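Shift notes (night). Ran RNase H type-1 domain-containing protein while the centrifuge was going.
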Amino acid sequence: MVWLKSASGVYTAKSGYKAQGETTITEEAPVPETNIDWLANVWKLKTSEKVKVFLWNSLHDALPVGKQSAIRNIPLTSRCPRCNEVESVAHVLFTCSYAKKVWTLAPLAWRFDPSPVITTRNGQETLRLIPSLHPTGVGPGTLSASICWDLWIFRNHLVFQKRDFTPEETLLKATREAREWTISQDQLPKPQSHANRIAQDPTLDPNRTCMYTDAAWNPESRCAGLAGPSSSHSAPDTSLTSPLMAETLALRSALNSALHRGINTLLIRSDSQNLINLVNAKGRHLEIASLLNDIYLISSLFADVKFKFIPRLDNSRADYVSKQALLMYQT
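Came back to this:
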């Protein structure tokens, strides 16, 4: 691939690959979107975590569409399998004739015309504000996010399995998934106004596995001792910049352990109130961003997982194990 700079200062990439029956195309170098309101457009949307991660990738143009294959000189067709236009992320989700038909049929409060959409950001910022019609029972942004997800899923069915679906089938599946997700959120137990101490909490579900996590951190050596599943496992770690990072690492370790043991329903208890509040709010934090992403993705693999703050006195066993792990590592 050769990058060329025009007189206007725009870089272009020429792909040396030419698929059978195609002409060599020149693609503009991808320019990352800037000034995106990630909370409004992704993380605060009322939809599932897998859909949020998908939207995050789509706004980064990080989906393996034909245009990206051409830019990277990957020997795959750069054309849309439905309309033979150059396939970009915005094309798959908005401007393809198939996507336009789906959006025309969508039960939105007012008509969405995807024809002027140039980037994924343009489409997403418009759609998240459009309410759904009353019979669907979902809020603004939920149905549109589900439609984008299923447009991508059915595109992959066509490309890899040669299975084609009608626009009506795509919309029906997206509407059903959005409604089911919304109903499941309404059925979640409401938090109590006055939480009891953990030692006095009744066992709500005898089939739910409970794990305690904690971490002991030394600021001089930047080492940490981690207490993991059921406070029966410990492991040291190094090059950690803060106690919050150590606590987050311990929590992620507990999730991984539970997943490998085939546990489906899980309650994790930690005495790090900042971390528990952050995870329960699906928040973002620059220092531990990658660890939080891992936690959110792993959590989605469980049938049900909860995170609860407990006082340090009620987490004494995990606290002891983490301190012993740190002491053993430093001696």
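The CA atoms of residues 69 and 240 lie 38 Å apart. The first strand starts at residue 2 and ends at 5.
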